[in-house]
Amino acid sequence: MNEPAHRAHRRPFWLAALVTCIAVPTAFALFMLVTSAISGGMAGVKRVSELLLLPFLIGVPVSAIAMFLFAMPVLMLFRERRLLGVLTVCALTIFVGALILPVAMTLFSRGDFIWVLMPWGAGCGALAGLVFCLTAGVPWRPKPA
C-alpha cells in the first residue's frame, strides 16, 4: 500500500486518489451553495445542510468508484508505458466523469439515462484530473524513457 514515488510523479497515486475523491465533492458542494445563495434559494439551515451533505453522501462514493475502478488501472497503465502527463490524465478523467455522473444519477433516480449531466460529469472529471495531477506531482508532459 505504501508505494514509493515513481519517476513519472513525485507523490504516491493512492494519496492523489484519496485527495481527489474528497476535493471534487467539496468543490461541487461549494458550487451548489454559492449558486443557491446567489439565486436566493437559501431557505435556512436545513437547506444549507442538504446542499452540503448530499454531495458528500453521493459524491464521495461515486468519486471513489470512478477513481479506483475505472481511472486508476488506466493511470497505472499510462505510468507503465510512460504516457503519464497532465493532458493524458485530464483526457481520461474527463471521459470517465462524463460517463460516471449520468450513470450514477440515473441509478439513484431510477429513471432514464440523464444525458444532460454529461457536461457536468466532464467538468467534474476535469477538476478531478487537475487535482490528481497537482497532488501526485504529475508533469505537464510525459517523461521520456
How would you describe this structure to a colleague?
The chain has 145 residues and is an all-alpha fold. It has one domain. Helix content is 73%, strand content 0%. The longest helix is centred in the middle third of the chain and has 36 residues.
Topology readout:
Blueprint (H helix, E strand, L loop, with lengths): L12 H27 L5 H36 L5 H24 L8 H19 L9
Helix pairs in contact: 1-2, 1-4, 2-3, 3-4
What's the order of the H and E elements? HHHH
Low-pLDDT runs:
1-5
Overall, the morphology is globular
Rounded average pLDDT: 84
The amount of helix comes to over 70%
- Share in β-strands: under 5%
User: Quick one: biggest sheet?
Assistant: none
Any descriptors?
145 residues, mainly alpha, 4 helices, 73% helix
Quick rundown:
By secondary structure, the protein is mostly helical. Helix content is 73%, strand content 0%.
